[in-house]
Design brief:
Strand content: 15-25%
Helix content: 25-40%
Distance between the termini: 40 Å
Oligomer: single chain
Largest sheet: 6 strands, mixed
Number of strands: 8
Number of helices: 8
Order of helices and strands: EEHHHHEEEHHEHHEE
Length: 266
């Protein structure tokens, strides 16, 4: 399929770790297909990427915006429906990694450079500090207990880092944070968080953070209110919402209140 110039259909450049090594992830916008993709073309792309489900969340199609040229469905709705139809395969095909070192990083003191361009990481550290230095317990999610939690055990492992972990005395939440101006879709956010949840060795994770063995672990999108992901949730996204139910992925929304963060459910 040749590249076109329709600004409505946008994807992020795909980074496939198996093929492209030691190359930093980029967010170059790519314009694709003048007429847009059909429903079947999107389904074919889903089927192709399902050959490696543990990296499916990285697929560029998850950040396609706009609608199919024939059925006028949101691209992400077609993808979410596909995953719902194959939910058992999706959930059972993401292997866990048992990290040899601790998941808890002893050197995490909440320090960051104000001039850093890592906007999401700065937000994560500020929220960590709000909990651990100011003693603030966030509504709905509890205390932020760590940030930038590593998933890899060896360099060859294909896994990222978890933005934030929170604990409310009952549930340990894996929070997939997106910065206020992120153009990544809610679908991408949901899939990334869930993949990280499955990648963790849950028993070791609880042990490393000295949490009860019966602690429940859930993944949640953690995005800013009025951001792109929040706005998508206000639209008719039947299959996205159904997928979130199947994955037990409840979103939480952040409000920046003059440098202090608060968390809402809706």
């Amino acid at each position: 399929m040749s590249l076109g110039i329709n600004l409505e259909v946008i994807q992020y450049e795909e980074i496939i770790p198996k093929i492209i090594k030691n190359k930093p992830r980029t967010k170059s916008l790519v314009e694709v297909n003048k007429m847009g993709y059909t429903r079947q073309e999107i389904l074919s792309k889903c089927q192709e990427r399902f050959s490696d489900i543990k990296t499916f969340y990285q697929a560029g199609i998850n950040n396609y915006r706009g609608k199919t040229s024939d059925t006028k469905e949101y691209y992400t709705e077609v993808i979410a429906e596909f995953i719902c139809d194959n939910i058992e395969l999706f959930c059972n095909s993401i292997p866990s990694i048992t990290r040899k070192s601790s998941y808890k990083t002893a050197s995490h003191y909440g320090k960051y450079s104000p001039t850093s361009n890592r906007a999401e990481e700065i937000v994560a550290i500020k929220m960590f500090n709000q909990s651990n230095k100011d003693g603030y317990i966030f509504d709905f999610i509890g205390k932020i207990i760590d940030y930038q939690i590593p998933l890899k055990s060896e360099r060859k492992d294909i896994a990222g880092k978890v933005d934030l972990l929170s604990y409310d005395g009952d549930i340990l939440r894996i929070l997939e944070l997106k910065k206020p101006d992120s153009m990544e879709t809610m679908l991408r956010c949901v899939l990334e968080g869930y993949t990280y949840k499955k990648t963790f060795d849950h028993s070791k994770l609880l042990l490393d953070f000295n949490l009860p063995k019966d602690t429940r672990i859930k993944s949640s999108p953690f995005v800013f209110k009025d951001g792109l992901q929040y706005k998508e949730m206000q639209e008719n996204r039947k299959w996205l919402k159904q997928l979130m139910v199947l994955l037990d992925s409840v979103p939480f929304f952040i409000i920046d209140n003059n440098g202090r963060y608060i968390v809402k459910e809706d």
